[in-house]
Design a protein that fits this description.
The chain has 324 residues and is of the alpha/beta class. It has helices spanning 12-22, 37-44, 56-63, 79-86, 101-114, 128-137, 162-165, 168-171, 174-183, 199-202, 274-288, 298-317, and strands at 3-8, 27-33, 51-53, 67-70, 91-93, 118-120, 142-150, 187-195, 211-218, 223-229, 237-244, 247-252, 256-261, 264-269, 321-322. The chain is built from 12 helices and 15 strands. Nicotinamide-adenine-dinucleotide binds next to α1. GO terms for molecular function: nucleotide binding.
Length: 324
């Protein structure tokens, strides 16, 4: 069965998804949607048989895709998804899935009513090390999670604007919040302190915070602390440490899991490509109807977005935000 896939977005991650799809025998990349036609044409040229569009409705009605991959910046969500769900088309969407709950709730209502297959690009869940951590946690009690995303500022213009990306915690560190939810539990309360320390003096038009510390109260009593910065001149590290009754699990997102048990440390390396597994799970669901291999869907990602939006709200008000 050959699935026709259309892609909304023309940036580096749209290209990454398209390349993974083009390497498969059961999928063909048939179209790209760009914010302008020349951008869409440029990337479409790289994939044999792909057409270029600058209007979502026209793309969907012309190529009639079996699924759409949505890989656009956070501020561009809304209209694209409305057109896709109206036509009952399954979609895989990159994180974060939006910048406001009103838009996301509207889309979620349609996804639920129409029972549409969705998947969200929280690819770290699909790493073999996170799966190993999940297995080890079955017999452990987590008391505390300490996470971080410490690095440089992505070069794309929209990332530097609050109205474009939502800021680092919403755009990037969302992966760590998602991991806390996946491995430890749901978030009940959020308190955040953000500041602009350096990047707004280095580049014009930067209005996102470049340092931040967020405290999360989790269901069941565990606590989490997540810090992030984008003011470094290089990527430093990102990951999550889980403090448990049997020792410490240390996850460095794209590299390894270390299981520290006193004098003994066992290291597990990531051996598989999580993006391949993510796409495989999504296409399997479309072909068979079996969604069990999809590790996070639109409704689940909406919960993560709500937490990261609450952190922004707390950083502005100076008050904790209760979620439940
Ligand atoms: N899961 C991951 O590992 C991962 C990694 C990188 C990026 N991402 C996510 O992918 C998304 C895209 O990031 P990127 O790095 O490719 O950004 P990018 O800036 O390289 O590309 C974004 C593209 O979207 C296009 N675009 C903007 N508005 C549009 C619209 N309304 N319709 C169609 N196209 C539009 C832009 O022209 C641009 O080509 C972001 O949400 C980002 O967080 C995820």
């Amino acid at each position: 069965m050959m699935l026709k896939i259309a892609i909304a977005g023309t940036g580096w991650f749209a290209d990454k998804h398209a390349s993974l799809l083009a390497a498969r025998e059961d999928a063909q990349v048939v179209a790209f949607l760009g914010s302008s036609l020349p951008k869409a044409e440029k990337i479409a040229q790289k994939f044999a048989g792909a057409q270029a569009f600058d209007e979502i409705e026209q793309m969907l009605d012309t190529v009639k895709p079996d699924a759409v991959y949505i890989s656009v910046p956070p501020m561009a969500h809304g209209r694209i998804e409305d057109a896709i769900v109206e036509r009952n088309i399954p979609f895989l969407i990159e994180k974060p899935i939006g910048l406001d709950m009103e838009t996301v709730n509207r889309i979620q209502d349609q996804v639920t009513t129409r029972n549409i297959i969705t998947s969200v690009g929280y690819h770290i869940r699909y790493t073999d090390t996170v799966q190993k951590a999940k297995e080890l946690l079955e017999t452990r009690k987590v008391g505390m999670a300490v996470g971080s995303w410490l690095g440089d500022m992505p070069g794309v213009h929209w990332w530097r604007k609050q109205s474009g990306s939502g800021g680092q915690f919403i755009e990037q560190t969302t992966h760590i919040v998602d991991l806390v939810r996946y491995l430890v539990g749901e978030v009940e309360e959020v308190y955040a302190v953000y500041a602009q320390q350096h990047m707004h003096t280095k580049h014009d038009g930067v209005d996102v915070a470049d340092v931040g510390a967020v405290t999360l109260k989790l269901a069941g009593g565990a606590v989490a602390s997540i810090t992030n910065t984008c003011m470094l001149p290089f990527g430093h590290r990102s990951g999550l440490e889980l403090f448990t009754d049997k020792g410490v699990l240390e996850i460095q997102q794209s590299r390894y899991l270390k299981n520290h048990e006193g004098s003994q440390t066992t290291e597990y390396k990531n051996l598989l490509n999580p993006y391949e597994i993510e796409t495989d799970a999504f296409l399997h669901a479309i072909k068979t109807g079996d969604r069990s291999r999809i590790l996070t869907d639109y409704a689940d990602a909406a919960v993560t977005l709500r937490i990261t939006l609450a952190a922004l709200e707390s950083s502005r008000s100076g008050m904790p935000v209760k979620l439940r």
